[in-house]
Amino acid sequence: MADIVKQKSGADSRVPVLVQDPEYCVWTTEILKKKEMTILEVQKMEAYLYIDDRTIVYSEGPGIPPIKEVCAELSRALNTWPAILICDPIIPDWDRENRKLYGDVNTPSVLAMREQHYDELPLYDDKNTQNFEELKVYVRKGLQLPDK
């Protein structure tokens, strides 16, 4: 993703990629470093302080803490919204219908954030992407994306 942003924007250097998960194993850490990603050596909640209006938040099947809820509440308090969210669908009752009653559920704050601040785009046009078929891309309203 960082390479695509660099190419589309014409930037001189690669966009920095910050990753954080307290459960990274040695093997995962090695792969991320080879891909030139910066691993944040912070506690879970401290990582949210790195989110701003230029951030792409990627959250696939999180547990605790609820990432979408923290983004919604923190963004509302700071009046700054991540540029892009890539996550489970933000629609009413999706959690219950898909038996995802843990972790990152769609609370009223998350639903309001999506309605007021984001437009939905498909993650892929290709229907052969079974591993990512439930993920959606939410782009902040008014954000200009480069053409394909």
Description:
- This protein has helices spanning 2-9, 26-34, 67-78, 94-97, 108-117, and strands spanning 18-19, 38-39, 56-58, 84-87, 118-122, 136-140.
- The protein is of the alpha/beta class and 148 residues long.
- Helix 3 (67-78) crosses helix 5 (108-117).
- The longest helix has 12 residues, at 67-78.
Regions with little confidence, pLDDT below 50 for 5+ residues: none
Roughly what fraction of the amino acids lie in strands?
5-15%
Number of helix segments? 5
The biggest sheet, with number of strands, parallel, antiparallel or mixed sense and barrel status, is: 4 strands, mixed
The share of residues in helices is 25-40%
Task: State the separation between the terminal residues, measured CA to CA.
Answer: 13 Å
Average pLDDT for all residues: 77
Radius of gyration, taken over Cα atoms and rounded to an integer in Å? 16 Å
Give the quaternary arrangement of the chains.
single chain
List keywords for this structure.
alpha/beta; two-stranded parallel sheet; globular; 148 residues; 14% strand; 2 domains; four-stranded mixed beta sheet
Offer a concise description of the structure:
The chain is α/β, with parallel strands linked by helices and 148 residues long. Helix content is 29%, strand content 14%.
Record the SSE blueprint.
Blueprint: H1 2-9, E1 18-19, H2 26-34, E2 38-39, E3 56-58, H3 67-78, E4 84-87, H4 94-97, H5 108-117, E5 118-122, E6 136-140
Parallel strand pairs: 1-2, 3-4
Antiparallel strand pairs: 4-6, 5-6
